[in-house]
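User: Predict structure, ligand S-adenosylmethionine.
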Amino acid sequence: MLYLVPTPIGNLGDMTQRAVEVLKNATIIGAEDTRHSSILTQHFGITTPLISYHEHNEARRTQELMERLRREETVAIISDAGMPGISDPGARLLAACIAEGLPYSVLPGPSALITGLIGSGFPADAFYYGGFLPPKSGGRERELEAAANRRETSVFYESPHRLCKTLEAAVRFLPGRELCVARELSKTFEEYRRGLAPELLAHFTAHPPKGEMVFLVRGLTSREWRDREKAAAGE
Ligand code: SAM
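Assistant: Predicted complex:
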């Protein structure tokens, strides 16, 4: 049986009891970074062996882990933090399992994507997740332009080193649009900073951002959306 097991995104108290039990009872744990994850396993008294399972060995490891799953061993996959498979390894092994009809389960648990989305206060009934914003300016600008035309909230992961560049682009591509930087979620310096691009740019230029962050763009309002539809239909 394969288990995808989410782990805390900053606060060890967010580890679920079931996640601990599954990791304790697994034959092996595939971890993105075994040294990083050994801190977690030691904290929770989990003695199951860890092997590396990351983007550079995912293809080879998938074959090895599939052998174990065919032998009815219990394999658990964790990433450095949050939900495996969301901008993290895990999806390839899961797809292989599905293709062979082998049993699997995904444990519910922490993810920066969902936490940031809800905490932003932006509509969350429908949303777009774009992963990490592209590091190059062309790709990033295309993503922001697409977000400007979207009805749903757009959610991205962003690096603190690039945030100000993104906000500079947002001044041009997202005028008048409410944005949110959700930072250090579940940690001591958790912060949700909402505002228009020029306000956020001024703030983060004066206070260079640190830590991990989610960048969110509020979608078009119903009225803005209707106006665009009408304009597109030539009404
Ligand atoms: N699979 C993970 C998840 O479900 O949240 C995401 C992995 S991705 C490689 C790591 C990125 O998630 C970080 O660079 C940051 O953008 C975001 N992130 C992770 N932890 C965070 C936190 N505590 N606060 C804000 N963003 C976080």
